[in-house]
């Protein structure tokens, strides 16, 4: 039944709209309540015997390809914040090309929807040889990565058919937020922060339902953008990953050039591209980087950039006080979960641009769901 499209025209569309349910399944049985029925922590059964080792390791290395890498990047800051352990990022192919150093005292976390991606699997074999603790985060029970890692977490997002990953991405981020909570100590100083994240996780499916109502708004935006040759996306902090992943979706399915750019790097090159014609999506939802994003928007507007600004609901006049730019307002959630909300309008946008351009949404040209060769 799961591999049928139901009332949807394409698997990608179905999988985007399934996210309230896939996230619910990802979290099922994993959020733990105390005696007072307040949420007090998470239980990740596949990690429980290894938490001490992860907490005391020298560094955590996130390793993946494509969308899975972007999900790991979106989670990096919260894992560092709650665990206090430095987290470094590796694209699997680049780690292998460099034969980068990995030590026995490292924890290597392999993120892969399929659990079969050749580059990620080879990087896992490399890290096993080096003696690191290897953790798998996959969507496929019994996959090579799930079998060969020492321990891990299944994201339980359900079968994903569309080549472009959507619901697996949001479930991967939810799992890694839970991983951050599991690895981080429950100290008095972090309690408020932890409780807000736990409540945020619990409410996430409702917030996702709310943001999915933007489907027709994103279709209208797709009509405006369908003829473009290029689309830039600027993000920073938690939403640098959103910019990369949004651009990856547009590239993969809509076959349109799109680039995710770290807003902090804008003045070191990308600013030269800004003119009245090139569309730029700026992600400026409310978090610790908000005032920096406000100033990025001002600088882009001063150069007559053609902006589409994603902001938290009710903040349109804060991000664009003088108007002039199109605004996408999304519900606000805890900062470390905001990438889950923010990617959804961009998934919808990529989907609609693709359909309008008449391309194959579920099986884009030249791409495969699982790349099992190096
Ligand atoms: C392929 C797919 C992408 C995916 C990547 C990593 O390139 O087309 O959608 O993100 O592989 O796949 P994995 O199964 O390891 O997450």
TrEMBL record:
Its EC number is 2.6.1.16. The chain holds residues 365 to 738 of 738 of the full protein. Keywords: Aminotransferase, Glutamine amidotransferase, Repeat, Transferase. It catalyses: D-fructose 6-phosphate + L-glutamine = D-glucosamine 6-phosphate + L-glutamate. GO terms for molecular function: carbohydrate derivative binding; glutamine-fructose-6-phosphate transaminase (isomerizing) activity. Residues 50-189, 221-364 form the SIS domain. It comes from Taxus chinensis (Chinese yew). This is glutamine--fructose-6-phosphate transaminase (isomerizing). It is an enzyme of class 2 (transferase). One of its GO terms (biological process) is protein N-linked glycosylation.
């Amino acid at each position: 039944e799961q591999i049928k499209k139901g009332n949807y025209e394409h698997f990608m569309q179905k999988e985007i709209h399934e996210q309230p349910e896939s996230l619910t399944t990802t979290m099922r049985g994993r959020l733990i309540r105390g005696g007072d029925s307040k949420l007090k922590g998470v239980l990740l059964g596949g990690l429980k015997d290894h938490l001490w080792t992860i907490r005391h390791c020298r560094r955590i290395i996130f390793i993946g390809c494509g969308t899975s890498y972007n999900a790991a990047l979106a989670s990096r800051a919260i894992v560092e914040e709650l665990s206090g352990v430095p987290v470094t990022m590796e694209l699997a192919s680049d780690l292998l090309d460099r034969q980068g150093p990995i030590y026995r005292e490292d924890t290597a976390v392999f993120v892969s929807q399929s659990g079969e991606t050749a580059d990620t699997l080879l990087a896992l074999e490399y890290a096993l040889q080096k003696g690191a603790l290897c953790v798998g985060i996959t969507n496929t029970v019994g996959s090579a990565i799930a079998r060969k890692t020492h321990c891990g977490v299944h994201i339980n997002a359900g079968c994903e058919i569309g080549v472009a990953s959507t619901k697996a991405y949001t479930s991967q981020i939810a799992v890694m937020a839970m991983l951050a909570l599991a690895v981080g100590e429950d100290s008095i100083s972090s309690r408020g922060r932890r409780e807000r994240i736990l409540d945020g996780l619990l409410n996430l499916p409702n917030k996702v339902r709310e943001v999915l109502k933007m489907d027709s708004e994103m279709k209208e935006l797709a009509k405006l953008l369908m003829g473009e040759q290029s689309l830039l996306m600027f993000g920073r902090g938690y939403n640098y990953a959103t910019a990369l992943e949004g651009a990856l979706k547009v590239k993969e399915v809509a076959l349109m050039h799109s680039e995710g750019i770290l807003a902090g790097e804008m003045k070191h090159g990308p600013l030269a591209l800004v003119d009245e014609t090139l569309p730029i999506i700026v992600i400026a939802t409310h978090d610790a980087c908000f005032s920096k994003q406000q100033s990025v928007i001002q600088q882009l507007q001063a150069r007559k950039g053609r902006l589409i600004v994603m902001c938290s609901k009710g903040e349109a006049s804060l991000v664009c006080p003088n108007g002039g730019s199109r605004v996408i307002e999304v519900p606000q959630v805890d900062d470390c979960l905001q990438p889950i909300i923010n990617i959804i309008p961009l998934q919808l946008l990529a989907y609609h641009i693709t359909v309008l351009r008449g391309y194959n949404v579920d099986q884009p040209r030249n791409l495969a769901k699982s790349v099992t060769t190096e």
